[in-house]
Amino acid sequence: MLASLLLILLVTAGCQIKPNSHTADELFTGQHLELARAIERNDMIALRQGAEEVDLTARGDKQMTLMWFALLQQKPDAVRTLVELGVHPNESPLEGMPARTPLGAALMSDNTQYLEAMLDGGLSTNDGADENETALLNKAVISGTLDHVKLLVERGADINYRSGNGRHSSALDESTLGTKPEIAIYLLEQGAEPNIRLANGVTTAWGVHDRLQRLPPGDIRQGLESVRDMMIERGVAFPPPSPVEVREQMRAEGLTPRVPPGHDR
After folding, report:
1. Tens of pLDDT along 109-160?
2. Is the same domain home to 94 and 170?
3. pLDDT tens for residues 15-54?
4. 53: which residues sit within 8 A by CB, 6+ positions away?
5. Does residue 12 lie in a domain region?
6. How far apart (Å, rounded) are the C-alpha atoms in residues 34 and 90?
């Protein structure tokens, strides 16, 4: 099965992309075999020439696709070329894998070369935003490293994008929830809005404050304390008002906040 092949590609800790012993001849037939052989040779001219009128997202033997094969073969040039030819790296999902899509694998890779190849091929730094889905920057915060986030910001990602017409979390919000406060520090340094208010009254400041009450001493707590101090420098009050208090403020503004289950107001 493809999943067993990709266990060679995707290791849960860090999702390091590694080469494997499976060849194009084992996994593809017909036109797709010729394209896979071109990927093996890193022959982008042959890949482009053979791609006309071919479904580049079709699955071969063991459900392998050309994009997954390019990753398995450690061929960032082929990854870039396939994106240029119209293959979206967030397609071809695989259930039960640490990274469900090629884009997920690029974000979980130990380095940024595969994400960079996808961007060079034409993937938008704001991918997902137009479809009202999770924006690529948010995905990088969750699954990637600071280097992945830096790459997207340097390429022009909307640092303050929020899906759901502004109802959902920003990249900064996401970065304060996990184990990588260095990303939150970087986003604040780059001008991220320091205190988003969600529809349920939860603010970025409240999320930071609440986590600090529960985190034991250690690097993550120390990093989050630095985030708090940077937010204070940017005019955010600490301790912040609770979500209940914020929802009352929203009502005073004529808004209708979303009340979480189990709460009266």
Report:
1. 989 999 999 999 999 999 987 666 789 999 999 999 999 999 999 999 999 9
2. no
3. 444 555 679 999 999 999 999 999 999 999 999 999 999 9
4. none
5. no
6. 24
Number of structural domains found in the chain: 2
- Of the candidates 104, 123, 142, which is a domain's last residue? 123
Distance, in Å, from the CA atom of 93 to the CA atom of 21, rounded to the nearest integer, reads 22
Structural domain of 94: 29-123
Please tell me what DSSP assigns to residue 111. Answer: S
Same-domain status, 197 and 112:
no
User: Could you tell me if 227 and 181 are in contact, meaning their C-beta atoms sit under 8 angstroms apart?
Assistant: yes
Query: What DSSP string describes 181-248?
Result: HHHHHHHHHTT--S--B-TTS-BHHHHHHHHHHHPPSSHHHHHHHHHHHHHHHTT--SSPPPHHHHHH
Phi, psi (deg, nearest 5) at residue 197: -110, 120
Could you say which of 96, 123, 150 is where a domain stops? 123
